[in-house]
Amino acid sequence: RIGKFVLDILRSFPELIYAIIFVKVVGPGAFAGVMAIGIHQIGMLGKLFAEEMEKAIDRAVRRAAKKGTTA
C-alpha cells in the first residue's frame, strides 16, 4: 500500500513541475529534463506493474479455488 501511494504521488505531478524542480536543483540542461521525464515514468510504469501483479494474484486464487483448494 505504501508503494502504491508513493507511485500515485509521483504520477500526480506533471513533467513540467518536475522539470522546474530539477532545473533549480541541477541547473538548466538536458539532465533536468531527463530526470523529470524519468521520475514521472517511474510512477506510470509502477502503476501498470502493480495492477498486473494484482490481476495475477486474483487469477491464481481463482484457479486454485476452481481446483478445490482452500485457504
Description:
This protein is mostly helical. Helices cover 85% and strands 0% of the residues. It has helices at residues 2-12, 15-26, 30-66. Helix 1 (2-12) crosses helix 3 (30-66). The longest helix has 37 residues, at 30-66.
Detail the poorly predicted runs. Answer: none
Helix content: over 70%
The total beta strand count reads 0
Radius of gyration: 18 Å
Distance between the termini: 22 Å
Q: Which of globular, elongated, flat, extended, rod-shaped describes the shape?
A: rod-shaped
- Secondary-structure element order, N to C: HHH
Share of residues in strands: under 5%
Biggest pleated sheet: none
Number of helices: 3
Short description:
The chain has 71 residues and is mainly alpha-helical. It has helices spanning 2-12, 15-26, 30-66.
What are the defining features of this structure?
single chain; 71 residues; mainly alpha
Write the layout of secondary structure elements.
Blueprint: H1 2-12, H2 15-26, H3 30-66
Helix pairs in contact: 1-3, 2-3
